[in-house]
Amino acid sequence: MAGAIDKRLQELGVTLPDAPAPAANYIPAVLSGSMLYVSGQLPFGPGGLALTGTLGAGVSIEDANKAAKLCAINILSQAKSVLGDLDRIARIVKLTGFVASTADFGDQPKVMNGASDFLVEVLGDKGRHARSAVGVAALPLNAAVEVEAIIEVA
């Protein structure tokens, strides 16, 4: 039987993919006590990596915003793979977003709104979180965005 969060995802037309496998020597998500730490997720969608490149050098804020949402979808996939039931999420505590950007690009928070808005839309107040949005020179696989999460588990 699907839980409330699964039902909400279904209402939004979002199907969680299988949790992406790690690309190197790390664990994609670690449950320690009541905290779930989800490693940085790239914007993988059904067709592979959805967005590459650099903000301020050809990649639009709108496209990167959508990519950040994909990262959040993958965070939920990782959470489900560890927890079994997304209804165990008590709250998204913190997101850290990394945005591949030029030195003069300063709209990283607008990009990260894609992940933040999605999590609030799915989880309501449990999705409200602290956040950092950091500009970086490059990300793995030339991804435009990467997002990691800290989640409190009930």
TrEMBL record:
Transmembrane domains' residue ranges: none
Q: Which InterPro entries match?
A: Endoribo_LPSP/chorism_mut-like (IPR013813), RutC-like_sf (IPR035959)
**CDD domains, per this entry?**
YjgF_YER057c_UK114_like_1
> Taxonomic lineage per UniProt?
Bacteria, Pseudomonadati, Pseudomonadota, Alphaproteobacteria, Hyphomicrobiales
Q: Which protein are we looking at?
A: RidA family protein
Q: Which Pfam families match?
A: YjgF_endoribonc
Q: Where do the Endoribonuclease L-PSP/chorismate mutase-like domain residues begin and end?
A: 7-147
